[in-house]
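Could you please review the protein record set out just below?
***
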Amino acid sequence: MVEYLFTAYMGDDAQGRLKVFETQKKKMLSDQLRPLISLINLASVRDISRIMGVKIHSIQFRGNINFEYSYPWLESGWVGRTLRLGAASLKVVAPVGRCVATHINPETSRHDINILKALQRNFDHTNCGVFAEVTQAGPIQINDEINIA
């Protein structure tokens, strides 16, 4: 019934009947082999908006944690470093290489921009954000500061 509901809701944009799949317990829906947290610097997202001349939504990058910093791209230098966020510790392991899913406008569901091309042309990479692994679990809250060790 859910498949029919979403197919009807999306109309012609569904391009056929949608399917709902069930996964086994303890399976992740991720493109990473290990469980990682993605952190997105909102200043970097604004910088992408600046070079493209269009508002980019942070949701297009599907980050687990969005943070606000005064200048863009500082997170690129965090690889190999340990962060404290609330009561948690995270080790930054890699930049997040982006894919064409970032080209989808979250308001219209249309593929209407090419973020990868803009990143490559202007910054010589296709990254936005960093991946981190949790080294010490603990609660975090909105407005917790990120401290770099």
Remarks:
- The chain has three helices and six strands.
- The helical segments are 2-10, 42-52, 115-123.
